[in-house]
Structure formats: C-alpha cells, structure tokens
Amino acid sequence: MLILIVLVFSVCFYFSSKAAIIDSDSGFEYTNAQNVLENKGLEHGPVVQQLLYALILGIFGRDYRNILVFQSIFTTLLVLVTFLFVRRKTSFNVAIIASLLFLFFPLLYWGTYTLKPYPLFLLLLMLTVYSFDRYIENRESRFMLFSAVSLGLATMTHLLGLPFVGLILLYYLLGKLKGNTLNLVEVAKFYFLAFLVVSPYLTWRIMVDGLSLDLLLTYPARWHTIKYGLLANKEFWRLPLPFTFEYYYRFLGYLVIWAFPPSLSIFLLFARPKYEDKKLLISWLLVLFAPFFAGRGVASYIYVYPFMPLILFLFAQGIHTFFKLHNSRRVKILVIALIVALALANYGHANSSFEHRMNRISPDVQDVEEFNTIIPEGRNILFRSRAVSPLLPRKNVLMIQDLSEEDALIYLDWNNDEEVANVFMKYNISYVILYKNIRWERDYHVWFKLVTGHEPSHFYKIDGSQYFEKAKEGNVYILYKFIKP
Amino acid sequence: MDKPREDVSKDATMRERMKKAKEVIRKAKENNRFFLKRKSKLARRLFLATPVMFLLLALIETVWQGSLTTDLNLNSLLIIVIVLVFSFLTTKEETRIPREATTKYYALIAVTGAACILIVWYAIQSLGWFPYAISTMAGILVILISILTMKEE
Q: What's the pTM?
C-alpha cells in the first residue's frame, strides 16, 4: 500500500517537474550552485541548498532538470515523513487517506518544480517535529539528536527555519502550565546539539559579514534588497507593507486559499487532538506565524508552504474522529472513495499549469534556448534577474543587484555611451538580455525613479549605442551583444 | 398547640398542588428526554450527511466544471455545512458491534473502486496516457483502503 502511495506521488511529481520554467528564485539558486562549482564562493545566506545543488550539478551535469528530479524525491520523502507522523497520531488507513489529500495542495507542485529548497526545508522541519515527538514518547537520546540535527540543517536551508528554533522552548513553556513532559536540562541539551550543527556556519557568517541583523534576515543580502526591497514589493509587486491591516488580511487570505482545500476543510472541525499534541500544535502554529507577527515575512502565497504538514495533520485528526463518530461501513467506503477521487481528479487543477507545461514550450523558454546556442560558454550576461540562468548553463547571468548601486544608476540612466561601456568592461559583461515588454525594464526599477526622479532609459538608448548590436530578437526578449571600444 | 383546622386543610391542598407540579415536571422531563433523543438522531443524520453530500458536490464540480457553480455557490454552501456540522459537534461516538464482512460489502467496495477509476479517468483524460495509470491506481487504492478499514474494525 505504502509503495503504491509513493509510486502515485513520484509519478505525479515527475510529470509536474518535467517542463522548463523561468523564475527569479530558481535562477538565483541555480547561479549560486554554479558559482560553488566554479569556485566563486558561497552566497551569504542559507548554505545547505547551495552545496547540495552544486553536488547534484557536479555529479549529474549542469542540466537544471537534475535538481528537479531530486526536488521530486524530497517531496515524496516529505509526504512519507508526514505519513509516518500522522500514522502515529491516528491510524494506518487514515494516514494513507491524509497522504492522498496532499495531492490537493497546489503549493506542493509549485515547491517541486521551482529550484527553491522548499521540499528539502520542509522535509527537515517535519523530521524535526517527528523525531521530537518520538523523543517525548520514549525518551531515546537518538531521537533528540536526530531532531536537533534536522533543525540545525533546516535553519541553514531556508531563512524561514529561523523561527523554528523557538519550537522546543515554546513546547516547554506551554508544558509549564500543566503536566510538563520536558525538563530544562533536556531543552538545554537539544539547543546545544542544534548549536553544534550550525556553529561552523555561524562562525563563517560572523567572520565574513560581522553581526549584522539584516544579513541574517535578508536573502539575497544586497544593497537593492536591503535598501529598496520593501519599496519594490509595495510599488511593483503590489504587496502590502508589514504591520498594516492589509498585510495580515492578505496573508490569512492566502493561507485559506492555498493551504486549505475548501472541500475538505469540513474535516478540520472534527479534529480533537490530545493534550500533548495540542501543546505541539500550538507551538508549531506560533513559530509559523512568528515572521508575520514580526513583520519580516512577505504576504505572499509562497510563505504558506510551511503550513501544509500541520494542516494535513489536522485533516487526519478530523477524518479519524469522523470515522469514529460514524461507525457505518457504507459511509466509510463512500468517504474513502470520494476523497481518493477528489484528490486525483483534482490533480490537474491543483497543478494549474500542468497541461500547459506538458504540451507546449513557452515562448520565453524558446527564446532563451535559442540565445543559449549563440552565447559562448563562460560569458557574463546582464539581465533583470537571474531567472534565465538555469537555461543558460556554464554562462554567468548577472542581475542589476550584482552591480554596485552607482554602476546600476549609470547603466539605467544611460547618459553617456562611454560610461555605460566602462561599466560593462568593469564587470566583463558580453551580452544583455532585455524584455520587449517595457513594464519589466521601465516600471520594474521603481527604486531608480525614487533616487533620480525620472524613469530609466537604458531599454531604448541601447538601440542607438555604437557599443551594442542586436544579436537576436525573440518573441519575449532581445539579445544584445556588447562590442568593446 | 394544635394547628387550626383551616391551616391543616391549607397544608393538604399545598401538598396536593406540589404533587401535581412534580408530576407535571416529571412528565415534561420525560417529554424533553424524548425530544432530545429525537434531536440526537436528527443531529447524527445531519452530521453524517452534510460532509458526505458536500464532498459529492465538490467531486461533481471538479469533474464537470461549472455544472453546479452556475446555479449554486459552493463556498456559500460550505459555510452552511460548516455551521451545521459545528452545531452538532457534541454528538457522542457511536458504538456498534462490527458485523462479519459479507460478500455484499466486498461487492460494494468493488463497485466503488470501479466508479472511482471511471471518474478519475474522465476528469483528467486530456493528459495523454497518464490518466490510465493514475485512475487505475485510484481504484486500487480505494479497494485496498476500504478492505483495510473493514479489517481494522
């Protein structure tokens, strides 16, 4: 049965991650991994995924789909660990049904086919919770060790792992209210072990960056993100600013839409966890909401991702109680059939762009694949973001943030051809990819307008420059070649 | 000193009235218990039917998109279902002695599994050969989970 479930998930994830995507976050992670392989150093931020992706690309080749295969494996493992956790709390059958419900979550597919380390991160978090729960039950040291190591690795995989450091402490404090199952020495031991895991990383970060809070909470930690990140979120991406009503309203809205499959939310009402589980659930919920209480998260659907196993656990509890309340075989068979049919029939809808990605190559992907045949290996290419990087292996995609703020201003302002040429020579840039849609070239750089008072002009002045020639015009992008003076 | 005759007769009347009142309360309590029993049965049926009905409607909407939502707002219905379920959450667990698994149940499981194969295949048929694999797996899963649930009893 379990093998069958794993098989269903693996097939679904494989087909979900089959086709190419162009996405800033994926490009960023791909470039970081490539930089590690080319001895250009690590990006100052979480390192586990950078090293792991570099290892995958180094062993299996630079095709980004190699990483996607591993993303599918991590997602399947995540479902498996969630299954094991739910099985301990409910029953084998309910855990199987709950695991199938995972197929309802569109975010699960999103996490699998982008190169961001969400599946690995969530897998490590689930291992932390699962091992900790096992430790609470039988006090075997190996579970505490496993839980602490998983937590340490999770904090080094994604910044969202940082609030999870408070999970065990919160559990202990909640236990103080009634029947504490954990003592202070055990809590100290846990944190000591977790600290041992992250200590090399922390030492490296402090040596390189000093004790700057921005560097710990912002990734990528560049001038643009630190100084203008919030402005871009508000003006261009239309994301509300932290500590506003809309910020919390939007986030809760995403949580309801993305993490609660509406047709199954009825089962949440039936959930009746035991007291020990309640303590864990409350601590879990508090650490998940912590970045939003602190105004550090972005009110975007992406940040709903870590909520999924918790919601699934509540679903399982609900179904478990529902089956206990209605001890009729006919009802049970009907409910099982309805859930399985809904989960699998809904698969195509949950994974919204599935058909599109199965049957068609997007024009933007087609453009970049053609550019890839023109651009020689090892060249530096300037683009708005690093989104195109996975489709241009063995080439270095630089984004505006990779230039210094002054150089970025010179390039976007384009007052003088010679000045721009000097910037290109300084960073050894050979090609530029520009969007045909000026929204991404004019409106995207909202920070530029704030600094200079006018809009960028690089996207039309480049055509009249003697140092640039049009190498290829695609449907979505134009490739320009830089001719050195 | 003895009570006056009038007072004695008053006491007797009071006792009589009290007796009658107690009788009325007893009957009311009995009626109420009867009512509560009825309500509990009704609650259980509603409790049982609403989530299953909603799942059924959700499945119809998933397979034949727009077939229900043109006339019916499923989200509004969900709120009603949640309110209904929430009102009857106090229903106690049912204790039934599990009966022997008869061929009737196995036949029901087989029919449900086959229906599941057809529904899933119909819903995702546009995705090439992939629906054949997924719908077969769906049918097998329904059959296996149902049998396991029955064995668990």
A: 0.84
